Amino acid sequence: MNSLLKYTLFSLVALMMFSSCSDEKLGPTIFDTAETTVDSTKASYKFDLYLYNNFLKPYNLKFIYRMEDAGADMDYNLVPATYENSKKLAVLSKYLWFDVYAKVVSPEFIKLWGPRIIHLIGSPAYNPANGTMILGLAEGGIKISLFRVNSINTNDVDMLNEYYFKTMHHEFAHILHQTKSYPKEFNLISFKYYEPFSWQDRPERVVESLGFVSPYGSSQTREDFVEIIANYIVKTDAQWNTILDNASKGWEKDGITESKIMTSDTTFIPIDNDGIDGKAVILQKLSICRIWLRDSWGIDLDSLHAEVQKRQANINMPHLLSEIE
Q1: For residue 274, what are the β-bridge partners?
Q2: Global pTM?
């Protein structure tokens, strides 16, 4: 990517350790859902009632669309999400995330293990230190903040995935693996090729040929693990196969192989053999993720992928928004 800003997912690792990765789940409720507390005199009553009936009541999750300063990082110049865009992201979150897990796993699963708060923020949060843009923050396995809501384009599924839904699946996978550890053998597969400090400068084709599905996945093992899961869920079969096709090639510039290339402002050419079978590496990692989700959580990763793909191909925004009315 040649632009100064490389779009990235930024996780608050220290806050996400989930109480030293204990096996204690949050429990069925931390909010009082015994009575509806929606104010019928507000202009936002219908939307607030929708959030109560579809998030707070069934999943004990607060969907916060009125930005809270106390819940945002004051180091960034942020603006609230607009009311209309908040409605769009709310109905899409139910359709493409919560309803998917409720169908493929069970409604109780997301209530027991999912986040307790989703906080919408209208603007991006730029990190000038490394020229990246924060897409999401996950805090303590309880809260997920989503940025850039005011730029949402409901007609662009790739955009929806890049800025919102891949982020959601990514952060949820963090919550799961911090509760039940994934196999240590995963950490050994690509240990020579992680770049925790300069991953944002690595081109996509280069990291794919090394066995990663994204530059951020090449930063460290836990990000590699959840990026495999999140990308596999939201990518179409064609997009996933493109990743595998790129991974099956090596890439070089002026005779320097991808393991030494750290800049993205150049042109790369494929080479027949770089000594790394990136496709085989990605498929090996995917197999570990698939087995871990099945054996540890009773989740069929391929069923999640299939359900998300079916829904992504049939997004009817007027119908989804009509549920608020």
Answers
A1: none
A2: 0.81
